[in-house]
Amino acid sequence: MVYVYSEENVMPPLELDEVDQQILESLHENSRISYTDLAKRIGLSRIAVQQRIASLIEAEVIERFTVVINPAKVGIQVSAFFNVDIEPQFLDEVAEKLSKEPPVTSLYHMSGPSTLHMHGVFKNMHEMENFLLKTLYAMPGIVRVDSQLLLRRYKSRMGLKL
């Protein structure tokens, strides 16, 4: 999904009341909580909670429900961040291609010295090297790639927390 932050595309923010905020906080902690348990926690009926969640989904406040996988437990040994400088006329094309690459977990158009900031995960250094040589370096418009390997994760938040 592409997020565009510009004044011309700004929609008025959805007004979230305290109950909606409690629902979102609870779902952020455990998105598998049942409607019944969530209703008990918040003090509403199961139907009311279900309707509020459906409204939050329809309003695109909740984009999706997902699972967070521990990379080390599934054989992912390399996590790397990349700063990718791109010729301006190739920016959208490169971003579109990279967004479809399985190792790429996040991709941002940034201000500052680099054009794109990207995170990728790989089974090992050989897989990362292949990605660099066969995918990244092969794309037209890429001027420079700077990479940094993640040594230790202290905190990683998935999704926005209110």
TrEMBL record:
Organism listed in the record: Paenibacillus gyeongsangnamensis
Q: Which residues form a coiled coil?
A: none
Report keywords, A-Z.
DNA-binding, Transcription, Transcription regulation
Listed name of the protein? Lrp/AsnC family transcriptional regulator
Gene3D superfamilies listed in its UniProt record: 3.30.70.920, Winged helix-like DNA-binding domain superfamily/Winged helix DNA-binding domain (1.10.10.10)
Q: Which Pfam families match?
A: AsnC_trans_reg, HTH_AsnC-type
List each copy of the HTH asnC-type domain by range.
16-77
